[in-house]
Amino acid sequence: MEWGRAKTILILSFLLLNVVLGIQLWSSRADLLDLDANAIGAAEEIQRLTKSKNIQVPPDIPKDVPKLREIVVRFDDNFNPKKAVPLAAPFKFDPLISKGSFRELLAKTGIPKIESYQFDPMTSLGGTYVFHQLYGTLPMFDVQLRLFEKNGQITSYQQGYVEVQSDGQQKEQKVITAYIALRSLIENYLPSGAVITSVKLGYHGQVYNSQTLNMWPSWRVSLGNADGDVYYVHALNGAVEGPQKSKK
């Protein structure tokens, strides 16, 4: 009799578990469908808004929506991002050369941890070439290596470098799409006739006097105006920060 009751309880438990898993699966699928629908709707809205406000957007708007979380980093005291370091052997820098030759050239500079950075053509101008330290495959926009050109050669550099302390306490979340970030900017922040030159996903934070920096996934939206205005859109909650000036 006891065995029969136990078997009944086990069967009911398995049935209940299947129901719960089914609900979770359906909920996840519904969330994905909603996300896809929102992305499609945002893309259509972008087309309407850009026409009505005569705003130009780049053709290569990112479509990826990875799962990311906030991170905590600490600046390495061995690197001073405000101190110019002269190069023992100045060299000619050409960002248009092939990627393989580009990496080989940088490896010969003697700049420490040069392989940890990625070149950013959008903020490189006036004889200053900007690189961002990478976290995984994404740039940390506030952690930079700058190469300074004089008389056609790179003669010095400034370098910041961080160590990732933790990946934060939050669970990974899907970032908002670039289209949703752009829709918010175009509707509420950008003037008519604005030209958007770049939309890039990376990490951004607020740099204070502390050596520790909280960084969150952000869409960086660059404008092609005289000041080189840059907006950051929090890629998890949609909050907008900016504009900041990229040109001096």
Describe this protein's structure.
This is Two-component signal transduction system YycFG, regulatory protein YycI. InterPro entries: YycI-like (IPR018604). This protein is α+β, with helices and mostly antiparallel strands and 248 residues long. It has 2 domains: 3-70 and 170-241, Lipocalin (Beta Barrel); 79-160, YycH protein, domain 2 (TATA-Binding Protein, 2-Layer Sandwich). The chain has 3 helices and 13 strands; from the N terminus they run H-E-E-E-H-E-E-E-E-E-E-H-E-E-E-E. The protein has helices at 2-53, 99-107, 178-188; strands at residues 67-68, 71-75, 85-91, 117-119, 128-135, 138-150, 153-159, 162-166, 173-174, 196-205, 212-223, 229-234, 240-245. Strands 2, 8, 10, 11, 12 and 13 form a 6-stranded antiparallel beta sheet that branches. A 5-stranded antiparallel beta sheet has the order 3-7-6-5-4, with no helix packed on it. A two-stranded antiparallel ribbon has the order 1-9. A hairpin with a 5-residue loop joins strand 12 and strand 13 (240-245). Helix 1 crosses helix 3 (178-188). Residues 10-15 and 17-37 have low confidence and may be disordered.
